[in-house]
């Protein structure tokens, strides 16, 4: 299963649509906040895809949850924007939050800096910011052979 992971689109509808179209194998789209409106539009435009969204610090008045646990292809994913876990000061708090929830995969945004890592059995990804011409996104492949995380520059 391929999961497209995006964050911090900040009203860049074009970039979000381009990322979704660039990953036709992705069955699931995860939006990690700061772009609720364009994420909801994309959900309507791509009804064949499953969408999961969390609230970012710039999603004012949002009814979305700040955190979410999702199980996909037998793996537990912890989704958060990251502002509540102070990710701009480091990743220790968000890693701890994911581990406390029994997550296999941690997905967060907020810093606008792409990151993939693996710490104590936890796959970690921040897809960076999709906003602008040089934005980034990520995808996670979950297969019987394991998990692979990738960061892609939007072109």
Automatic annotation (TrEMBL):
Keywords: Metal-binding. Belongs to the metallophosphoesterase superfamily. YfcE family. InterPro entries: Calcineurin-like_PHP_lpxH (IPR024654), Metallo-depent_PP-like (IPR029052), Phosphodiesterase_MJ0936/Vps29 (IPR000979). It comes from Caproicibacterium amylolyticum. Residues 1-140 form the Calcineurin-like phosphoesterase domain. SUPFAM superfamilies: Metallo-dependent phosphatases (SSF56300). This is Phosphoesterase. It comes from the Bacteria. Pfam families: Metallophos_2. It is an enzyme of class 3 (hydrolase). The keyword Metal-binding applies. Its cofactor is a divalent metal cation.
């Amino acid at each position: 299963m391929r999961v497209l992971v995006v964050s911090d689109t900040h009203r860049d509808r074009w970039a979000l649509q381009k990322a979704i179209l660039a990953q036709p194998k992705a069955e699931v789209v995860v939006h990690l906040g700061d772009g609720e409106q364009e994420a909801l539009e994309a959900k309507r435009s791509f009804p064949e895809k499953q969408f999961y969204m969390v609230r970012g610090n710039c999603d004012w008045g949002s009814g979305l949850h700040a955190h979410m646990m999702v199980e996909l292809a037998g793996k537990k994913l912890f989704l958060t924007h990251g502002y509540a876990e102070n990710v701009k000061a480091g990743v220790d708090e968000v890693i701890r939050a994911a581990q406390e929830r029994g997550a296999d995969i941690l997905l967060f945004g907020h810093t606008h800096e792409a990151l993939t890592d693996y710490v104590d059995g936890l796959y970690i990804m921040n897809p960076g910011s999709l906003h602008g011409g040089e934005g980034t996104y990520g995808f996670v492949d979950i297969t019987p052979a394991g998990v692979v995380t990738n960061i892609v520059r939007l072109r």
